[in-house]
Amino acid sequence: MGKVIAIANQKGGVGKTTTAMNLAASLAVLEFKTLVIDADPQANTTSGLGHDPKGIENSIYECMVDGVDISSIILNTEIEHLQLVPSHIDLVGAEVEMINLDNREEKMKNVIAKVKDNYDFIIIDCSPSLGLITINALTAANSVIIPVQCEYFALEGLGKLLNTIKIIQTRLNPDLEIEGILLTMYDVRLRLSNQVVDEVRMHFKNLVFETIIPRNVRLSESPSYGLPVIAFDADGKGAVAYLNLAHEIAIKNGMKNTTDA
Ligand code: ADP
Ligand code: MG
Q1: Which end of the chain is more exposed for a tag (fewer CB within 10 A), N or C?
Q2: Between residues 156 and 72, which one has the greater pLDDT?
Q3: What is the pLDDT of residues 92-148, one digit of tens each?
Q4: Under 8 Å between Cβ of 49 and 76
Q5: Long-range pairs for 64-69: beta carbons < 8 A, 24 or more residues apart
Q6: What is the Cα–Cα distance from 235 to 185, expressed in whole angstroms?
Q7: Is 25 strand, coil or helix?
Q8: Does ligand 1 come within 6 angstroms of the Cβ of 216?
Q9: What CA–CA distance (Å, rounded) separates 249 from 179?
Q10: Looking at residue 259, what is its pLDDT?
Q11: Which CATH code of 1.20.58.340, 3.30.70.100, 3.40.50.300, 3.40.50.10090 fits the domain covering 3-260?
Q12: 51 CB near ligand 1 (under 6 Å)
């Protein structure tokens, strides 16, 4: 049974998509069967993994609302063991159309249940909102990763997100855990970056991943190649950091990868 991890923060530009595609690729390189679900209408994970969103007809949304079979829309990627449920712009209208559906918060959970057994990990890239699609993702998930950028206002909005998580734990998904808070875009030369690390660690203690993602130009270039960073700069510090994160998560979840032998 695959572990479902949502990558969420309603703040834009904190590294959700970068984390979703590169963590998923790293788990796949460790030979875990991994599915990444693009649940953002901006479809950055879809294009980042080499698929043109303009050519996509069905996304997770059509599975949730129109009953499209998720198995029929799963795409392969350049990375072995890594598959993708793509997104496209129509996901924007989804929230409005879903408002009158019964169990509207549980649609994604029911869709994912159909393929959960086929994977070790299912990673959901959320949009920068706390709307119905993100609520669906958090209801479907076993845990959530919260990327926090090592920048000014790093903690801004985090209270609201944690409150939303609490409400979901109370009403919709009592088993939802915080997998970890992930510090992203860290710049060792900046005092501010180091201050943010200290502040977040002081506040959230062992909820914060040991692995810190550095600012790394290869990570920002990778979407233009349609590849995760590990596919073209495997020894670079961005790729190594996401591989370390994948190891940290695998160990935390008591999962052994075959490459460790
Ligand atoms: P989100 O999905 O939260 O909006 P993204 O992952 O798209 O955030 O990141 C926002 C921008 O920052 C993108 O241009 C991305 O390439 C860049 N970026 C993300 N993480 C890093 C990093 N560790 N180093 C350098 N650039 C990064
Ligand atoms: Mg994004």
Answers
A1: C
A2: 72
A3: 677 788 888 899 999 999 999 999 999 999 999 999 999 999 999 999 999 999 999
A4: no
A5: 64/94, 64/98, 64/107, 64/108, 64/111, 64/136, 65/94, 65/97, 65/98, 65/101, 65/107, 69/114
A6: 18
A7: helix
A8: yes
A9: 8
A10: 62
A11: 3.40.50.300
A12: no
* Beta carbons of 137 and 39 less than 8 angstroms apart: yes
| pLDDT value for 97 | 83
Cβ count within 10 A of residue 108: 28
User: How confident is the model over 28-68, as pLDDT tens digits?
Assistant: 999 999 999 999 999 999 999 999 999 999 999 999 999 99
- Please name the residue whose Cα sits nearest to atom 13 of ligand 1: 220
Q: Which two tokens stand for residue 245?
A: 């994160």
Name the residue ranges covered by the structural domains of the chain: 3-260
Q: How far is the CA of 90 from the centre of ligand 1 (A)?
A: 23
Q: Is the C-alpha dihedral spanning 144, 9, 230, 77 positive or negative? A: positive
Query: Residue 241: CB partners within 8 Å, gap ≥ 6?
Result: 211, 212, 213, 214, 216
Task: Give the pLDDT of residue 261.
Answer: 44
93 lines ligand 1 (CB under 6 A): no
